[in-house]
Structures are given as C-alpha cells and as structure tokens.
Design a protein that fits this description.
It is built from four helices and five strands, in the order H-E-H-E-E-E-E-H-H. The chain is about 35% helix and about 10% strand. The protein is of the alpha+beta class and about 230 residues long. The strands form two sheets. A three-stranded antiparallel beta sheet has the order 2-3-5. A two-stranded antiparallel ribbon has the order 1-4. It has a domain of about 100 residues: Alpha-Beta Plaits. Bound molecules: iron/sulfur cluster (2 copies). One iron/sulfur cluster binds next to helix 2.
Length: about 230
C-alpha cells in the first residue's frame, strides 16, 4: 500500500517538473525565429557557406578551384590565346590573362559547401555569397554556368589556336632543319683534312705479262769433273 502512494507522489512530482519548464518557456523571451518571415532578422555568420559565385572578369582559368574540389562539381574548359590577343588583366593583382575560359560550370546539387575551392583562387574571384535560398524543382537548374562566352566565340578561339599551333609547328620544324644543316656545315668545315691515298693499282688493259718459260737443266762440265777426280 505504501509503495502505491509513493508511486503516485513520484508521478505527480515528475508532472510538476515538466509543467514548471513549460511555464518558464511561456513567459521567457522567444529565441526561435519563424521561417521564412521576417527575413531582415537573419544575420548570417561571417564565414557562412552558401551559394558560390564566380566573377568571370577576374578568372584566369587556372583550374586550381576545380582541382581542390573533393566532389568534382566544378568543370572548367579553356582555350589558349594566340600571340597578339589582349585578354586584359585581373583586378586584384593585375595578372595578365592568357586563357579564354569557354566553360565554367558549378553543380551546386553536388556541392558540399566545404569552401575548399575558394581558398586557392589566386585572384579571389570565386566566393561564397550570402544567398542561401536557391532550391529548384529540377536538379539541372542547380548547375550554374558562369562562363560569359557564347558557343560561337568559343569555337572561333579554338580554331584560332589550332591554326596558330599548326603554323608554329611547321615553323619549328623548319628552324630545326636549318639548325641541323648549319651544325653539319660547321662540323664539315672544322674536320681535319683526310689522308691522300694512292689510287689502287690497275693493270693497263691490253698489256699482258710474258708467259713463263722453264729453263732446260744445265749439263755438268766434263773437264772440271775429271780434274777433281785426278786430285
Ligand atoms: S564548396 Fe567544396 S564542394 Fe562546393 S564547389 Fe567548392 S570545393 Fe567543391
Ligand atoms: S581558381 Fe579562381 S582563377 Fe583559377 S579557375 Fe578557379 S575561379 Fe578561376
């Protein structure tokens, strides 16, 4: 019986504790903000990671951001400029641009907001913005195309580069051949004179050596033989 009443007392104590917390929250100043209104009350942290933005005027197409991305959601394509083309300089450090950036896509559906692409950028042109509401009904709408160049211009720059490269290759081979010829010429000029060898013997045509004739055996001298016998 005693245990029965003690259980009731413990239950009432627990209920009163819960009620005390609820009543305390009812009279305390509210800290929860309603979403999505009012928006002006939202103050984002200084280093909040939200939607990315790329200022293409300053992008030099170095590909560092794409290489740093752990999920490969940045795709960059560039075309080399040919000598004589002026692409301008970057705002931050007046770095001369030498690549046409024909494609710069970021798939924000894959992005994990790690911000690793932001830090290595030499011109600080890829940044995290304060935009955090950019949901889309279709995933493909989350692929952002930052390149400002249209397809026709991109093709033109590609053709220009191919043409210039082909001409440069021909010129290089011609110069290499000329260099090789010059070196060969110098080696020939500085080589020691070669030994003068006598012309090989050649028998005059029509002159044959006389035929070999064997001499007859000589007869012994009889007188001298007789003298030798007498002695
Ligand atoms: S924030 Fe991270 S995941 Fe997103 S694009 Fe940059 S490097 Fe890639
Ligand atoms: S690191 Fe910066 S400059 Fe290099 S490609 Fe990326 S955005 Fe452009």
């Amino acid at each position: 019986m005693g245990r029965y009443f003690s259980n009731i007392a413990r239950g009432l104590g627990t209920a009163l504790t819960g009620l005390r917390i609820v009543i305390a929250h009812l009279i305390r100043r509210k800290v929860t903000r309603q979403y999505p209104e009012p928006k002006d009350e939202y103050i984002l942290p200084e280093r909040a990671r939200n939607r990315l933005y790329v200022n293409m005027d300053d992008c030099i197409g170095c590909d560092k951001c794409a290489r740093a991305c752990p999920v490969d959601c940045i795709e960059i394509e560039t075309v080399k400029s040919v000598p004589g083309e002026d692409l301008g300089v970057t705002t931050r450090n007046a770095k001369k641009k030498s690549l046409w950036v024909t494609k710069f896509d970021i798939d924000m559906a894959k992005c994990c907001y790690c911000s690793l692409c932001v830090w290595p950028c030499p011109t600080e042109c890829i940044v995290m913005t304060e935009v955090f509401e950019f949901s889309e009904p279709k995933r493909e709408n989350l692929i952002y195309h930052f390149a400002t160049m249209d397809a026709a211009d991109a093709e033109l720059h590609k053709e220009n580069w191919k043409k210039w490269e082909a001409e440069a290759t021909v010129l290089r081979s011609k110069q290499a051949a000329e260099r090789a010829a010059r070196v060969a010429e110098q080696q020939t000029a500085s080589a020691p004179p070669s030994e003068v060898k006598p012309p090989p013997f050649a028998a005059k045509p029509g002159i044959k050596p006389p035929p070999f004739v064997a001499k007859p055996p000589q007869q012994p001298d009889n007188e001298s033989d007789n003298n030798k016998t007498t002695e």
